[in-house]
Amino acid sequence: MSDNTRDIIRLSAADLGARIASGAVTSVQATQAHLDRIDAVDGAVHAYLHVAPELALAAAARVDAQIAAGEKLGPLAGVPIAVKDVLVTTDMPSTSGSKILEGYLSPFDATVVKKVREAGLIPLGKTNMDEFAMGSSTEHSAYGPTHNPWALDRIPGGSGGGSAAAVAGYEASIALGSDTGGSIRQPAHVTGTVGVKPTYGAVSRYGAIALASSLDQIGPVSRTVLDSALLQDIIGGHDPRDSTSLRTEWPSMADAARNANVQGLKIGVIKQLQGDGFQAGVLNRFTEALELLVANGAEIVELDAPSFEHAIAAYYLILPAEASSNLAKFDSVRFGLRVNPQGGGTVEDVMSATRDAGFGPEVKRRIILGTYALSAGYYDAYYGSAQKVRTLVQRDFAAAFSQVDVIASPTAPTTAFKLGEKLNDPLAMYLNDIATIPANLAGIPGITLPAGLADEDGLPVGIQFLAPAHEDARLYNVGGALEQLLVAQWGGHLLEQAPDLLELIAAAAEEGAR
Amino acid sequence: MARAELMDFDKALELFEPVMGFEVHVELNTKTKMFSEAPNVFGAEPNTGLTPLCLGLPGTLPVVNEQAVRYSISLGLALGCSIAESSSFARKNYFYPDTPKNYQISQFDEPIAFEGSVQIELADGTLIDIPVERAHMEEDAGKLTHVGGSSGRIQGADYSLVDYNRAGVPLVEIVTKPIYGGEHRSPEIAKAYVSAIRDIVVSLGISDAKMERGNLRCDANVSLRPRVAEGVETPPLGTRTETKNVNSLRSVERAVRYEIQRQAAILAKGGSITQETRHWHEDTGETSAGRPKSDADDYRYFPEPDLLPVVPSAELIAELRAALPEQPAVRRRRLKAEWGFTDLEFQDIQNSGLLTEVSETVAAGATPAAARKWWTGEIARLANAADADAASLISAADVAALAVLVEAGTLTDRLARQVLEGVIAGEGTPQQVVDARGLAVVSDDGALIAAIDEALAAQPDVLEKIRDGKVQAAGAVIGAVMKAMKGQADAARVRELVLERASA
Amino acid sequence: MSGISAEQVAHLAQLARIDLSPEEILSLTTELDQIVDSVAKVTAVATPDVPATSHPIPLQNVFRPDVVGETLTLEQALQNAPAHDGSRFKVSAILGEEQ
Ligand SMILES: [Mg+2]
Ligand SMILES: [Zn+2]
């Protein structure tokens, strides 16, 4: 790998976009540099399920030609991007991490994919994820787990572990993710990156393979707050193909990030999102970040959100219920896997055999749970009650935001745990999402950014900010401000403290050889 | 299939009281589907004109068709229903290969319209109000074709083929409350009710309402309860069966009658009725058991998260109410007066369920008398012979064209009947059949005069007899000419020409 | 214990069209029981006076004009079909009932 390659891949998306626009670097060079990096590290990281070098280089060449022709393109034109496999694409397979969709080619692009292509970004490939986004570790991918670039024996978070690892491992400048209960934010937390779940409806869901329709939201995954802001400016906005898409006139998120200032900002801290179950190193970095903000003019307000205790329970009823219905279409009739049982059988037998063979254990677990929660006689107790909890969570947020501008919390209770550690304990796995789930239940936006390394294990820790619905810009403001302060303190981005991935890979190979 | 035992209808009514309920599905004739911009057309090549949503492809999302909502509200108003302040969509979950998402987007606890009634008129002029529980919006399923086995039936088929062209077509499902007191007129009421719904949607212009195409389909629920002596407590409703997709007015009547007779025979023997759906077989006039309604029928309804509530404004409802066509009873009175029919003549149309056809035929240019004559006469006769609804044989436009050809003297009644057969056989429009079969009346006087000359040469005394005042003698010549012209002559014109010759 | 039985899981699997093996049914019965136990506490706070929320952001009357849009070619419609006859999707015999 040449020094030039090394430099290019370490640039932020904003900086790389600026150099491409100025002609200092071509998009083809930038794309090739990332493809080289993927060649060098993805065998060990496994961030990608599919890489499309020819398509990427061709798209890059088109952008270069446009720039050469003097066309004025957007700030991220020519920048390579990784696309979570939950988003359908016409030129690359879309599997949502499942065997049941192996090789599936969509006749249309997801709206967000269409928008990033139109903005001149270069899709490099599709990233790994927990099957149908069900999981917090990417271990439930039907195609094998992704490894955390900070420590290859650890989880990259989930379900968007592939997008987070691609960005943390410099295999893409920036990425697209989806967040149903924390699938953008929790992976960012454990990989030392930035992730944003926009307001529900701020970004179109058209072309996102649905997990839980009332919770799913597409958003950016990046190494800096500004990069996420630039990407949200591109993918956000009304889409007539998504009935839940908002018609809000959005301010520039990039401006919010650039003009960040926390002077006089009221930050709420929720009792229920710290303490029990949270790792000491996670809480320490959280407290220090708050102190830093206070030192720079912010004010902290202690808040109570009693219904948050029930948020995980409500989430694990609503999600499986909606998912059991959303995943019914995978029946072997119009697309996807078909498994014929021995000796033939009726269409019902074929569907049942296909779904047994095509879905992994976590997907089956949640479909059965969701079927139960909706079935006659149980609906009111389970699904109905969960929807009422949703109302209570919204009320708690409304009460909180009547007192503060944003809410802060640790993004997840622990740093990256070891691959396999919680795989057979679904309930322990579900607890990872305790701090991220309330935002999905309420439809409000959330950002996570690196807060430092945990004392116990030297692994990255994130801090989460939440804002009222439609107030995504507040997140880029507070996130941008904290990032500036922390980067100044650290003398560079947190990722610069990550071990050299090539060395990690070499060491792992040696270990394996022994 | 073993033939079910049937009890004599009158006997069945002696022992049991029938209770009915109907679910009528109306396909709306919007330009696009309920939730996608795919064209809503009938008869296209299979699986063409689809959008990704019609196939339930991953990543697709539904968006409500505004016109379908307006049509549904209009229909709700025409059914005398209240329109819900807020109505919402729900998912009805069940696996079936004609259902692309394996759930149907429908309405559950918040239908767009509820609590109405439809007035129907029976053959003897009796008016009955049928109570409507609700009307809700939903989407249609695709079409399955069963291949192999016996006669394309689902039982014993080797495999099935799926065409999703119909999947997602907007539907309104109209559900009645239980209908009591129909007694021996229950089958007639069933037919009159479906016919009334058909008249309403046609006058609203919101559906093509062709039952043979499935634009309008009826599920008929029938149950029986034993009669008890006066003073004895009324027993609860009996177990009902739901006969699905009855696709003609005639069959609605027959299916209800059949179920009453079948259930009565079982109950009288001490047997019990299985709560199940039943299939109506047009060919044999019987129903057969479908899937039993059991706990397996758990649709797991829940609010559709991809769609938002429909909250019609008072202005919209007022606008649609103002645009409603006249009430069916008012319309019947008006048409009867406009057409100048006697009570008997009008009821003849009404009872045959042909009001829509006759009015469309008149609108297309026929005289009311001709429209009535053709529909209740020759077409009804052919329909009866074919075990079909008259409306399924020929369009109103074609009947009107036929009537116009007769009116203009291009066709005699006898020729017109031949043309009608050609149209029904699928040979084209009346004009096309006339051209192809060469059936037009010979209107060229030269050809007629030549034929008259020939006939007079064979019967030289005829002219003499006419001049002597025995005008009826002309009949022999006219007959000979008509025979020579193979019937394609206008007998009145021939008579005129013969009389002219005699007076010359 | 919420008392979910293996029989119940087998019925749910049938409803969900997943041909679970007896081993899968057994392990899922235990797991489901635990999960349902832990989530059942939602019933405690879901009092009758609390309305249900089905959509996180309340919107209404989102409609589409009745105008035909872009459609798929037959080839595109069939491009991912496990089996077809050239124009229609092909499935095994149904031996059930048409809805
Ligand atoms: Mg029905
Ligand atoms: Zn229906």
Automatic annotation (TrEMBL), chain A:
It holds the Pfam family Amidase. It comes from the Bacteria. The keyword Iron-sulfur does not apply. Keywords: ATP-binding, Ligase, Nucleotide-binding, Protein biosynthesis. The keyword Phosphoprotein does not apply. The active site is at K84, S159, S183. The gene is gatA. Residues 30-475 form the Amidase domain. Its EC number is 6.3.5.7. It comes from Microterricola pindariensis. Heterotrimer of A, B and C subunits. Belongs to the amidase family. GatA subfamily. It is an enzyme of class 6 (ligase). PANTHER family: GLUTAMYL-TRNA(GLN) AMIDOTRANSFERASE SUBUNIT A, TRANSAMIDASE. Allows the formation of correctly charged Gln-tRNA(Gln) through the transamidation of misacylated Glu-tRNA(Gln) in organisms which lack glutaminyl-tRNA synthetase. The reaction takes place in the presence of glutamine and ATP through an activated gamma-phospho-Glu-tRNA(Gln). This is Glutamyl-tRNA(Gln) amidotransferase subunit A. It catalyses: L-glutamyl-tRNA(Gln) + L-glutamine + ATP + H2O = L-glutaminyl-tRNA(Gln) + L-glutamate + ADP + phosphate + H(+).
TrEMBL record, chain B:
Transmembrane segments: none annotated. It catalyses: L-aspartyl-tRNA(Asn) + L-glutamine + ATP + H2O = L-asparaginyl-tRNA(Asn) + L-glutamate + ADP + phosphate + 2 H(+); L-glutamyl-tRNA(Gln) + L-glutamine + ATP + H2O = L-glutaminyl-tRNA(Gln) + L-glutamate + ADP + phosphate + H(+). GO terms for biological process: glutaminyl-tRNAGln biosynthesis via transamidation; translation. Its EC number is 6.3.5.-. Gene3D superfamilies: 1.10.10.410. It is an enzyme of class 6 (ligase). Residues 275-297 are annotated as: Disordered. GO terms for molecular function: asparaginyl-tRNA synthase (glutamine-hydrolyzing) activity; ATP binding; glutaminyl-tRNA synthase (glutamine-hydrolyzing) activity; transferase activity. Keywords: ATP-binding, Ligase, Nucleotide-binding, Protein biosynthesis, Transferase. Residues 357-502 form the Asn/Gln amidotransferase domain. InterPro entries: Asn/Gln-tRNA_amidoTrfase_suB/E (IPR017959), Asn/Gln-tRNA_Trfase_suB/E_cat (IPR006075), Asn/Gln_amidotransferase (IPR018027), Asn/Gln_tRNA_amidoTrase-B-like (IPR003789), GatB (IPR004413), GatB_Yqey_C_2 (IPR023168), Gln-tRNA_amidoTrfase_suB_CS (IPR017958), Gln_synth/guanido_kin_cat_dom (IPR014746). Heterotrimer of A, B and C subunits. NCBIfam families: gatB (TIGR00133), PRK05477.1-2 (NF004012), PRK05477.1-3 (NF004013), PRK05477.1-4 (NF004014). Belongs to the GatB/GatE family. GatB subfamily. Allows the formation of correctly charged Asn-tRNA(Asn) or Gln-tRNA(Gln) through the transamidation of misacylated Asp-tRNA(Asn) or Glu-tRNA(Gln) in organisms which lack either or both of asparaginyl-tRNA or glutaminyl-tRNA synthetases. The reaction takes place in the presence of glutamine and ATP through an activated phospho-Asp-tRNA(Asn) or phospho-Glu-tRNA(Gln). This is Aspartyl/glutamyl-tRNA(Asn/Gln) amidotransferase subunit B. It comes from Microterricola viridarii.
Automatic annotation (TrEMBL), chain C:
Coiled coil: none annotated. Allows the formation of correctly charged Asn-tRNA(Asn) or Gln-tRNA(Gln) through the transamidation of misacylated Asp-tRNA(Asn) or Glu-tRNA(Gln) in organisms which lack either or both of asparaginyl-tRNA or glutaminyl-tRNA synthetases. The reaction takes place in the presence of glutamine and ATP through an activated phospho-Asp-tRNA(Asn) or phospho-Glu-tRNA(Gln). The keyword Transferase applies. Keywords: ATP-binding, Ligase, Nucleotide-binding, Protein biosynthesis, Transferase. The keyword Transferase applies. The gene is gatC. One of its GO terms (molecular function) is ATP binding. The lineage of its organism: Bacteria, Bacillati, Actinomycetota, Actinomycetes, Micrococcales. This is Aspartyl/glutamyl-tRNA(Asn/Gln) amidotransferase subunit C. Belongs to the GatC family. Pfam families: GatC. Its EC number is 6.3.5.-. HAMAP family: GatC. GO terms for biological process: glutaminyl-tRNAGln biosynthesis via transamidation; regulation of translational fidelity; translation.
